[in-house]
């Protein structure tokens, strides 16, 4: 602050000073978009603050400026939830010619500032007793000038620092306790009460001073949360809970607050004061991490030791937790140390491989925006997590304090992961298990050997002792131990552990391979976790005397199932390329075979030849071999699809000659069977020949045997009470047959002179017979 021409008596006031030197950044940090975050509409004219290219400019270096940028009502701080803010302040490079400074502020309601230059847009006037600044506020001031003489005021009385009295402190602009007034007949002085004072900072060096604000909410009572701020890389400082409650929360009446920056310049001492943001509170709350895994997928802990020559997987993980916006346009910068080399073509983003030439330069991974997906749950965004993985080979040498760093910068948030630190041990001997993977399942069904390949390295070419062990439930069994007679730098051998494997109970076990330097006793061990399991067995009994089924008929299956280490099996089946059939879960007793009766529905199947497959999956997701029934046939039926239900010839003259029945309905037979089995269609009168009941004598008169006949190609077939064959199957014909009634062919009535006048009635019976003709 800079203020002139104030006379008074100097009184000492207490303050607390932090004696470290806080190093600011010389590089311009990444910044996020400030679209819609701030407003400069504070109800007065002359506000110098503005936002240009996502940079908040509080004062632009001109004299006598006062500026303020406040969050919009849509971007208030919500103290019911955790939030974090990271910003960088640059106050120019004018050194001793700089003034006045700026203030980061929290305010319970409204956006405002004060006009006095000495007040940096936030504090009360230093010439008026009791004058207060912005009400209901808490500030962190970045003061470029120590006002502690009568010529320029006494706001900063007693503050001394190595950089023109630059200082950072917590202030309470709108409270009477934020000031000490000394007004009397001998003169007047007014001091600002500074809290958590930091003096060893060079704010006017042109560097960027990092300000991080962190709020840890209390779920039961938001007023009991913890608010801290942090300057550059120093320890966090807690804001007074009492002032936070009285000034911001209004003693529990408000859980939200405006936030922003105010600043000013004087008539002579001035500064170009700018603020950029890595993280705007409430926009994107995310978590990022760096993790390392060994070749067996086991996580390597922070500051752990990794063997030289080993291969590791690095995982950079990001998760959107909450916020008003999705995390968008994310790019990544990761630096790996000189103690490791990238394994080519192993870099993946969410399991999709990215070509090395697009993203790697030496030990630097740089993934541009557009490859990592946007993260969040707004606007139906599909994911809130991203994983970037790659493999690296550890150089075999002694390296200490190796560090991996990573930074994810999006349009609206920047997160720097906590560096992952590790050490590297130079390995002169190393044991390796080469032929199996960690957590591999070994099934004991129908195996007669269990070959494992072991390998070692021996850089100093010393004699080694080799040993192989099995471990289960803390119990070890030595399988093989021998002393090597060769001194090669590296080697391998294969050993069959089948007999020992068979003796193990089902479940997890560990395979150990150890090599020991016979001279020094130094040992290297390799271990993998394996699982002994048994796959289910499933068998189907052959069908008895049947392999052909009609559509809709159910196929009966007699099935046997067993599993030595599971208590249940889910059965699945399939008829050739048709849909999968889930028969459900069947409980069983271990070591016992169980018989199960199944049925397969054929209602929706097409005609044809099928193979039925059946298999089981146990609780450990092991599958049985497939059991099969071959040469199953699904066919249709032999049926009469249409036949006359009635017919009426109309008036016929007795003795007048044969008359064709014109309204006789079609007679059709459909044969949908797969094989050419013979059949014939018969017709006969039921009970008697046609009978005349309606005549003048009231007696029954029966028609002669040839009264109704069927004619085909000139040949006649009389229809009497004796069945007559009128249609039969033909070799190589299609499945549908229709009785020929075209032209001269068809049904006829023969009204001979022996008949009397009246109406003749009869009932026809149609009979379809599948039998050799």
From TrEMBL:
Organismal lineage: Bacteria, Bacillati, Bacillota, Bacilli, Lactobacillales
Signal peptide: 1-24
Keywords assigned by UniProt, alphabetized: Signal
CDD domains per UniProt: lectin_L-type
Superkingdom, taxonomy of origin: Bacteria
Protein name: Legume lectin domain-containing protein
Gene3D superfamilies found in the cross-reference section: 2.60.120.200
Entry annotated with the keyword Signal: yes
The keyword Signal appears for this protein: yes
Organism: Candidatus Enterococcus dunnyi
InterPro entries: ConA-like_dom_sf, Lectin_L-type_dom
